[in-house]
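[INFO] parsing input record for Sugar phosphate isomerase/epimerase
[DEBUG] input buffer:
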Amino acid sequence: MKLGVFLKLFRTRSLEDALAHAASQGIQAVEIATGGYVGNHHLNPKEVLGNTQEIENIKRAVTQNGLTISALSCHGNPLHPNPAIAQEHHEDFINSILLAKELGVDTVVNFSGCPGESETSQRPVWITCPWPTDFIETLTWQWEQKVIPYWEKMGKFAREQGIKIAVEPHPGFVVYNTETAIRLCEAAGDHVGINFDPSHLFWQGMDPVQSILRLGSKIYHFHAKDTAIYKHNNELNGVLDTKSYRDIANRSWAFRTVGYGHGAELWKEMISALRTAGYSGAISIEHEDGLMSTQEGFSKAVRFLQDVLITEDSGEMYWAR
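[DEBUG] output buffer:
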């Protein structure tokens, strides 16, 4: 496995400076944002697609720093009921796949998206319970009329381009847990898998180790981000918390740098489960910790993960004897 970082952490730096800084901190792989909600601060597909010289410049900047690109990421909602937003995010998605092919990158990360409740909706509607029956009827309509048709098409396009799509399960979108992830992968085909981010599973009460083992070879990419559960607020209000992420004192949970929500033992179990499942890709650090600066959270995550990662060689040491 390689220690990686989602380069959006350093979006105020130029691509060249961000790459150099990541490498200086012990990073081996970078994930680069190319659209959607995360923007395209370092790499705008529309500006570089088909530009052979610029593609070579990007490749050179990466390799000169001893890095590889683990994925391009365009976390968006191509199923948004607002046609303008849906089209923008869909184009980002298509262009990210095409750019990945030109760069020799094999994975593009995205969300599953979330439609509205009907053809006349203006905003996405995330269904979290089956009753009143309006909810289950809406959920059925979303999957049958919007989700599956779109992802069948994108799965086919990804296969034609030779690119893997890693969908990140995330509450607020139709894929948010293990069974919805499996449902989407089965509908979309073998070029659609999962970007596994345990932070979104922790607060839902899921066991990420069991989820990793269940998803197995469908895990195409991994985000390293943690979540702290605040017992005093959770026991009063539960985990469905709509307060601002900045209101940490009153929230039931908050995103944290790895090691500040769960200890090394659990992270070792997750890394071992990934290895058991055959994953040998990047462990990409993502920072959304409201109690630490970006650099502090990043530095702590690097040190923490360096102690728990399993390298490609170490898994072969015993059996090689």
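[INFO] The chain has a mean pLDDT of 96.
[INFO] shutting down worker
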